[in-house]
Amino acid sequence: MSTRGRAHEKTLDPEDWDSMRALGHRMMDDVLDYIITLRDRPVWQHAPPEIKSHFRQHAPPEPTPPERVYQEYLDTVLPFQIGNSHPRYWGWVTGSGTVMGMLAELLAASTDAVSGAFAYQSNNYVEMQVLDWCKEMLNYPRESSGLLTSGCSASNLIALAVARNTRAGFDVRTHGLRDTPSGMTVYCSDEAHSSIQKAVELLGLGCDSLRRVPVTGSLQMDLEALKSLIKEDRSAGLLPLCVVGVAGTTNTAAIDDLDSIADICAMEKCWFHVDGAFGAWAAIAPDYRHLVTGMNRADSLAFDLHKWMYLQYPIGCILVRDADLHRQAFSLTPTYLAHGEGDRGLTGVDVPWLSDYGFELSRGFHALKAWMTIKEQGTAKYGQVIQQNIEQAHYLGTLVDAAPELELALPVSLNIVNFRYARPGISKERLDQLNKQIECELQEQGIAVPSSVTIRGSKYLHVAITNHRSRCDDFDLLVREVIRMGRALS
Ligand SMILES: *Cc1c(COP(=O)(O)O)cnc(C)c1O
């Protein structure tokens, strides 16, 4: 065999390790400097046309020196991201990232660890431990099963699949929905997240079968309406499958009466799913745990760690009370992945194949950033920071109340504040327009990023505080700027 031939074999590893090492060190310095100096920069800036057109070039057939690729990132990518790590980013409901989480992602990437199959490897032990910690923190039964996901959309889909397969009354995995004896229905409030509807559609139930239960004045599910909808559907020969309670709606952080929904589900033999995307974490804020009473009675509990646990995207989680039902919905073992009882006992640790608990086989090692950050910070401090966000929301609420030109949509719930500029004598249409303009100005000038929502037909600025870097001064500044802009624009 000729060694000359081998010399021509290619690899994607660096040609020059020393300069790649130097570049890596430079990147490490740059990313830490970036986070340390976040406050000195605009929260967000618009990408100019020349930046947008930069992304229309063809795939490069020839190599580019690594330093130049990095420079291009610095010039064209870094400045024009959404800005959610900034202390004054409160749009939609978005996490802010942790430094340890960032470093953990580098470590996970360094071994290119794939998580899911292959039970006996350390990254699955880490994931199992993170799942156990989530159960502990959220007071969910230890025997439950779980899976880290790419976010709450995936978690909701997995949960509703288990609910459907369990409650349908026939073998859905074998027969599909071809011969469904009776239509199946799912219930959630008008304020529930769109991912619930997507899940219902993906599961073949059709969005017509998603009953949108009206809400009360505080935007919680109206339980009398829920009961009568279930009753009507039953007498029409339909099969009520599942009720989805929300712990923290995206618009207003309203929390459904989870304890009462659990009672109704027990009585009606419905699956009880809780979408606790961010609000589930109120469970670890010392003075606010009571807000999610009843959450741990759910048959399945979905939540994110990339929103109110502040970890880097993506990381969500699904927990299912009955591990067997969870596994029955997803377990499938082709011969090339055969694993059996014989594998156990090699290490004495019985770790399941996580691919038996969801629809994905290969997944990234997302557990590591959770494991390292939770260890670094401790659960007590996490609880305090979450509580701090709730207190900041109340602080912002008092600032708004004290300003005659500002108006809250509703009393502050949890960590979300919806308010608007509303000087008397301005028409409703103009107020909607004006508040949209204020939102855009705040964003485009890089001052702060709230988003906006429509509540009872009117536009409000939406401030969702899932940010461990925000300080009270940041909210003072927001209120000052909203008033200044409101006056200037009206
Ligand atoms: C954000 C959110 C979701 C979807 O979660 P992703 O992580 O974005 O997929 C679901 N429900 C609620 C209440 C949310 O706020």
Structural summary, described in words:
41% of the residues lie in helices and 12% in strands. It is built from 16 helices and 11 strands. The strands form 2 sheets. Strands 1-7-6-5-4-2-3 form a 7-stranded mixed β-sheet, with helices on both faces. Strands 8-9-11-10 form a 4-stranded antiparallel β-sheet. Helix 6 crosses helix 13 and helix 7 crosses helix 12. The termini are far apart. Bound molecules: pyridoxal-5'-phosphate (PLP).
Produce the secondary structure layout.
Layout: H1 3-7, H2 17-36, H3 49-54, H4 66-77, H5 99-110, H6 122-138, E1 145-149, H7 152-167, H8 172-175, E2 184-189, H9 194-202, E3 210-213, H10 223-235, E4 239-246, H11 258-268, E5 271-275, E6 300-304, E7 316-320, H12 323-330, H13 367-377, H14 379-402, E8 406-408, E9 416-421, H15 428-444, E10 451-455, E11 458-464, H16 472-489
Parallel strand pairs: 2-3, 2-4, 4-5, 5-6
Antiparallel strand pairs: 1-7, 6-7, 8-9, 9-11, 10-11
Supply the key terms.
single chain, 490 residues, 12% strand, globular, binds pyridoxal-5'-phosphate, Aspartate Aminotransferase, domain 2, 7-stranded mixed sheet, alpha/beta, 3 domains, Aspartate Aminotransferase, domain 1, 16 helices
Q: How do you describe this structure in short?
A:
By secondary structure, this protein is α/β, with parallel strands linked by helices. It has 16 helices and eleven strands. The chain folds into three domains: 15-80; 106-333 and 347-377, Aspartate Aminotransferase, domain 2 (3-Layer(aba) Sandwich), CATH 3.40.640.10; 380-489, Aspartate Aminotransferase, domain 1 (Alpha-Beta Complex), CATH 3.90.1150.
